[in-house]
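quick q for whoever's on today - can somebody do inverse folding on this one?? i tried earlier but teh output was garbage lol. tokens:
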């Protein structure tokens, strides 16, 4: 699995738990599906992967649709979380929905889908990348994401330092177990990725 901007850096699937065999896992913002497919094939997890961009889901299905233990869903993650009553052993997001959906709405919705003690892990762009300043309040900043066809889509992004993410997680019923910074020397000396792990209380 690739949690950071630099391939081969950071943890692998163990960030979601020691043994994922047969476990139910949800990805929020799966993109082309590579990480979900890794969990389904190498770790034999039952993976549900959601993405808002239909083009990404079609790409993912074309590559990995043959896998019986992997389901791709096109739609908004909040709608999916509210419409389903399924419980998961782990939920994760890699530069996906977490940070792009209001955390005061998304994190409680995630919490309802995790039994106590289960893992939430997510990586987001580091709020200090390229010399930026972390948000001083709970409001989002303006940013963009680049779609597979190279279209730049304007988005709102919540860019918090670890202590602010910890407060948001605590309000939603999680305790933070780790917050790791990762650097990519190709882009300068600023950290590029923030990876946070938490458990449901």
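ok took a stab at it. sequence:
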């Amino acid at each position: 699995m690739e949690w950071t901007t630099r391939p081969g850096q950071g943890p692998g699937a163990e960030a979601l738990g020691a043994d994922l065999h047969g476990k139910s896992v949800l990805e929020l913002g799966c993109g082309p599906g590579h990480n979900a497919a890794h969990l389904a094939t190498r770790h034999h997890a039952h993976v549900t992967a959601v993405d808002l961009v239909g083009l990404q889901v079609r790409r993912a299905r074309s590559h990995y649709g043959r896998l019986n233990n992997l389901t791709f869903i096109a739609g908004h993650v909040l709608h999916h979380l509210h419409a389903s009553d399924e419980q998961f052993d782990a939920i994760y997001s890699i530069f996906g929905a977490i940070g792009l959906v209001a955390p005061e709405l998304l994190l409680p919705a995630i919490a309802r889908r995790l039994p106590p003690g289960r893992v939430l892990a997510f990586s987001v762009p580091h709020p200090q990348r390229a010399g930026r300043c972390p948000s001083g309040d709970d409001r989002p900043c303006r940013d963009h994401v680049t779609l597979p066809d190279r279209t730049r889509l304007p988005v709102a992004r919540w860019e918090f330092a670890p202590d602010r993410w910890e407060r948001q997680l605590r309000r939603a019923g999680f305790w933070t177990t780790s917050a790791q910074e990762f650097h990519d020397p190709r882009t300068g000396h600023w950290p590029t990725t923030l990876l946070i792990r938490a458990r449901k209380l």
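fwiw Strands lie at 24-28, 46-51, 70-74, 90-94, 119-125, 141-146, 152-157, 174-183, 191-200. also Residues 2 and 8 are 7 Å apart (CA to CA). so keep that in mind when u check it
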